[in-house]
Description:
Elements: H1 16-22, H2 33-41, H3 58-70, H4 72-81, H5 84-121, H6 126-175, H7 178-181, H8 184-198, H9 212-231, H10 238-260, H11 271-288, H12 293-298, H13 302-317, H14 329-336, H15 339-355, H16 361-402, E1 427-434, E2 444-451, E3 456-461, H17 467-474, E4 482-487, E5 490-491, H18 497-502, E6 504-507, H19 518-523, H20 533-542, H21 546-550, H22 589-604, E7 611-615, H23 623-636, E8 647-651, H24 655-658, E9 663-668, E10 671-676, H25 678-684, H26 687-695
Parallel strand pairs: 3-8, 3-9, 6-7, 7-8
Antiparallel strand pairs: 1-2, 1-4, 4-5, 9-10
Helix pairs in contact: 2-3, 2-16, 3-16, 5-6, 5-9, 5-16, 6-8, 8-16, 9-16, 10-15, 10-16, 11-13, 15-16, 20-22, 25-26
The structure holds adenosine-5'-triphosphate (ATP).
Amino acid sequence: MSPTEGRPDYDTPHSPSQTAQAEPARERTEETLFNLWQTSRALLPSQTTIGATRPLNRKSIALAHRVARMCATDVHKLFWSDHPYRMLFLLALSFARGVFPVFKGYSHAMIINEIQSLFVSNYSSWARLTQLVGAEVLRMAGERLLESFAADNEQFLQNSIRFLVEYQQLEQRVRLDVPTLSDPVIRDLLAESDMFVASFQALGGFGFTSPFNVIRVFTLLSEIISHLFVLSSVPHGTLPFLALLLSLASAAAPFFRQFYGPRFDARPYSASEMRQAERQEQMRQLVFSETHRPEVMLFGLGPWIMNTWSSARRTALDIQNDRLPHHFPLEALLAQVNMAQVIASLHNVPFMLMLQSSTALGSLALYRTSAQAFVLAISSLFATAQAAIQSIFLMGAFCAFMELKPQLRPLATDRAVYAPRVGGMKIEARNIAYTYPGASEPALKDVNLTLEAGETLALVGYNGSGKSTLAKLLLRIIEFDSGELLVNDVDIRRYDPVELHAASAAVFQNFARYDTTVAENVGTGFVHDIERPTAVRKALRLAQCEQVVDGLPYGIDTRLDSDTSSASPSPVGTSMPPLPERTPHGLSGGEWQRIALARAFMRANRPEIDLLVFDEPTSALDAQAQAKIFDTIDTMSRSSSGQKCKTVVFITHRLSTARRADKVAMMENGRVIEFGSHEDLLARDGSYAALYQASV
Length: 696
Ligand SMILES: Nc1ncnc2c1ncn2[C@@H]1O[C@H](COP(=O)(O)OP(=O)(O)OP(=O)(O)O)[C@@H](O)[C@H]1O
């Protein structure tokens, strides 16, 4: 099965539950994985703690059962479809492994009994003893062989499932849009879904939260049953019964001690500890980052960084105060007693008692070992069952996350197909308002503007007035809260954003700087041509960047230093000696801006592109280069006959460039306060005119 098989296709109509999951704020009555996951979080004392272990009680078991039922199809695909025989082998071996200890006990018991008979009563023969030892050697070899098959098989299954879940997780992350991923509840869901994916890296051993723990619960159950079977054959009588009881009690002592003795809880991180861990990491990054070094030096940040780091680190390591613990004296005394030795000596008591009975020595050893293994298996069962329940909830988070629908994608019933217009995109904004999640003030209020197909709009205004936010709305990157935005006279919410994006090209203010070659930095603008050096070179030429790139040691194959690559050292053991062309090369701010422009130019003049958006495209360029770039944009927005064929929106702080636009929108405090041609706005002698006079 290919990793994509079985996942809903981009165009698959969504069930009502999927729509509901994309809108967690709304009230829902139907049972969905998303609200089951939320209910499971309500079982926790503090819902703010991501990944906290749900308690092992009736309520959580019932809930886990419902989650598992709803995940059944996904579980089948993940765990069964690709390797049914291997999975069957794993299940069979898991049950078989449960009875291994009893087989081993029996074999040992028979050998000891035989030796006892040989030496005490001379009733046995060496031949039979040799036979039994031979059988034990065969049993050991068989067990080892099966164990090694089981380990290999489990490792293989872990890795193949890990690949599938990692693939699906990446694919879903790529598919989801900004509004969905910025929802705080979805972020929590994502964090727990990531923990499910990560659980396949922990090899699912005891103590780790892994879906394989569910299988281990059954292994333990089969072990417990087989021990019970052995113990039920203990000879009748007070002495063997007393001995068995003592054996059980001494084996159970460490188990009960964990409830009543000093606790070493592996509790999850609290919100404040997570904040401290984040703080400590921020400080560490500041120290390691080459990008931040000049500022660290210039502003003398050393002592502040060290103080902040050490306070956060001390909290994380729990060494913030060196007070002696206030233990109850008896508890302190008990803690000094070597409990392991006490328990070990207790183990001998039932043995001594049973020796008084007539039972054979080997059988005594078998009963004693079985009693202890029985208690151990029961205590492991609790820990494993809790880990299994937790992994079911994490799997629920993963399945719920996989069902999320991008919020910007319309319902199939509302969807309109984007129909291109001659001349470019017509845009009409009516009373648009938008507030960023978590922000108290709206970034956009009551925005109105109309842009005919093929017109050029300059968005101008003071810092923070909402220009970039409006650009992101027009590009359908974020969703507005109220108002109407029409594209080609159709509500923008009815288009699939994928279609709109295929008809747009843009340079964002915070454009991406990829830590890769020039060719890939530029080619990502139109990935179909990423392997075509001529297309990349043409885009570089249009962005007046060809000369810069020709001066680089490996031309378009030179790897660029994205600045973030030096933020932290590569993890120990993963660093490889860099190839010569892989030594990152730095670029100036203006050169990076040209690379970003070249990326947009990879697709900007393609016939399917109807909208070009440039957020301060020339802020780092000199006046001459700026004029040339605007000429290029103008040429690109026209057909070969000179007719306008693309709508252009650009944001600028240099008002000398705004006069090139057909229309200017002057923004202030989230509103478009003046809208019209450059000449109209100058004649109005308002805010734009004042800003223009001041800037020229
Ligand atoms: N991700 C965000 N979360 C919360 N608030 C934001 C976010 N991005 C921007 N804002 C706020 O929204 C408002 C508008 O920001 P926007 O970036 O659109 O302004 P701008 O006009 O483009 O500014 P500039 O000229 O400095 O680029 C500002 O008050 C800003 O603080």
